[in-house]
Q: What sequence folds into this?
């Protein structure tokens, strides 16, 4: 991780990917600031929304209330899927969103959230903080005048809710499904008709029948959004989100004016909020799943043939996108190269441990 | 030290987990403080040692250099296994250590690190921050006048280095093995002669032949400590450390004098450092393991019969310890109850995703 040496001019370039321009800084060490953070998430989704609030609380408390960030839910001052634009234009100083919501602008933004058959939570954290992830993402967000930080990760998501069982690849044909970003492109190769909707609009669409299936996050959020009431079959895993990171956006000009102490507090607070979001999901999902199952939800793994077809379609989409976009190709190689390096190690200590404990507990229950 | 003007009283109870007692605080919002942190770890182990340094850097930067924590490696001002005592007595204001080093004082302290067949990293984070873990650990450390925070987690560790292959439970008999805390008690039921040594003393003992086997952490640290030179067989998983947490200790009296802003910065910095340590290990272990394997290390899973014998012996030790110690019994029930709740959920989305990607990559290599 790169440290910033501030207050001295010309050193702003120490931030990966940022232009090496001298920028004005505040005269005081601890200026009073009132910033606005536009979130893509709504208050009701307390894990996603709450992570942004925890971040702002750490910043406010750490600065004795001098750096005050007010969080606005999606749609209140900025539409949920326009947070990136609002931060780029400095309509708000900060945003909390997901890179893959802006996949249409630039598919490389999806690497900042999750891509099909990509990194799990821990691999993503390692790529961002200890390998090339942050540097590459700063390069991409640089096009949008944004300094980004990770701000949460949901863990591996579920594969979504389906009105009918998915027994074969053919069952995907014609399926109108809510899914964000990259997954839609892959699934459309298999006949799915993907639709991108923010959280709040999904349930009404299912009710109206304009959707046959929906994937959102996992048991805790999905239960709140009521999907179980309109779709019975709950599939896993969400192969398009092995570990979905959410992000903090800061307008670059505003970031460069911050004193170094505030920048450091932001960095620490964003990491703290990131790991806390994962802990919250891990704490809440298991009980939510048990409630759903007790109320009739049918849990299903995707059939192996469906997984394999999705894997193959994914490779095609990666090839097509790489052929059109040189930077995407370069980041993909870095990201997938990292996955290929880390995954074999994760299969040794971690997976064998988890597998043994899981099996032992299953035996103990019988 | 300029830490002696207590002019106003205020509650410091707003930071989660701290006692809600009125306590004297510094007259200034941002007093200048120079604290010492005694670590159990040596500089050479840059992941363990470096996490403490990252923490201190976040605190120093976030306070504009006013709260300055100087980190001392194990043995420099405090012996590595006496950090808890030094913080308790306020010889140093802060420590960075592992609860299970003090298993002999109180076996409940081991829950703050790892216990056999216990929680993995993410389950541990969730237990500490989102369930009852922090509250219970604060109760235990309260006996030692200490306020604790998580400060790192290694992930699932390896099962250690052995001069001879472990083909059956009988091969454990008479084995002189370095292992910390609880694992030693379990392994001794199977005939192992456990020895507790700090990191720096292990290699000399192996060289002298006073040890037959050693477990420390995982490939990255173990490679540095040179174990591969004296023991060929590298076993997995380290069932006694499914996710070993390291800890920050703060003398309670000193903690209560801190202004709320410093307390909040400590909390955020400790979470940030915790997730960063895991990312560092995840980033470094895979390449270290490849190097070890290319130099002749033989990787072996523990045979199923050995794992089962260890599982059974673990339950016996838990029963014996519970019979003697009411608080241990109560914390064990909470901790293992949490494991039993979370593990089935982790087997669904996370494990099935990891398993699919791992298998797909193996196939792709052939």
A:
């Amino acid at each position: 991780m790169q440290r910033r040496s501030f207050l001295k001019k010309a050193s702003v370039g120490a931030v990966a990917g940022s232009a090496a321009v001298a920028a004005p800084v505040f005269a005081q060490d601890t200026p009073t600031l009132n910033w606005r953070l536009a979130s893509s998430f709504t208050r009701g989704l307390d894990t996603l929304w709450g992570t942004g609030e925890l971040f702002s609380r750490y910043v406010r408390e750490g600065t004795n209330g001098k750096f005050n960030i007010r969080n606005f839910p999606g749609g209140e001052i900025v539409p949920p899927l326009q947070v990136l634009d609002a931060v780029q234009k400095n309509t708000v100083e900060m945003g909390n969103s997901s890179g893959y919501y802006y996949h249409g602008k630039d598919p490389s933004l999806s690497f900042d959230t999750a891509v099909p058959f990509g990194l799990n939570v821990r691999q993503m954290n390692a790529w961002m903080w200890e390998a090339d992830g942050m540097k590459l993402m700063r390069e991409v967000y640089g096009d949008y005048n944004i300094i980004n930080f990770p701000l949460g990760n949901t863990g591996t998501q579920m594969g979504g809710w389906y009105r009918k069982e998915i027994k074969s690849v053919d069952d995907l044909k014609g399926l109108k499904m809510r899914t964000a970003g990259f997954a839609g492109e892959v699934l459309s190769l298999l006949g799915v008709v993907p639709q991108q909707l923010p959280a709040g609009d999904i349930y009404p669409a299912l009710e109206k029948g304009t959707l046959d299936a929906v994937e959102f996050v996992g048991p805790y959020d999905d239960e709140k959004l009521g999907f179980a009431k309109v779709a019975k079959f709950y599939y896993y895993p969400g192969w398009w989100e092995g570990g979905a990171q959410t992000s903090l956006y800061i307008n670059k000009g505003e970031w460069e004016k911050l004193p170094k102490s505030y920048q450091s507090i932001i960095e620490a607070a964003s990491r703290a909020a990131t790991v806390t979001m994962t802990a919250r999901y891990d704490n809440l999902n298991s009980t939510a799943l048990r409630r759903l199952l007790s109320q009739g939800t049918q849990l299903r793994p995707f059939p192996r043939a469906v997984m394999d077809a999705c894997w193959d379609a994914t490779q095609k989409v990666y090839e097509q996108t790489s052929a059109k976009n040189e930077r995407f190709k370069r980041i993909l190689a870095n990201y997938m190269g990292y996955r290929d390096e880390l995954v074999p190690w994760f299969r040794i200590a971690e997976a064998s441990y988890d597998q043994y404990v899981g099996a032992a507990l299953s035996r103990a229950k019988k």
User: Anything to note?
Assistant: The longest helix of chain B spans residues 260-294.
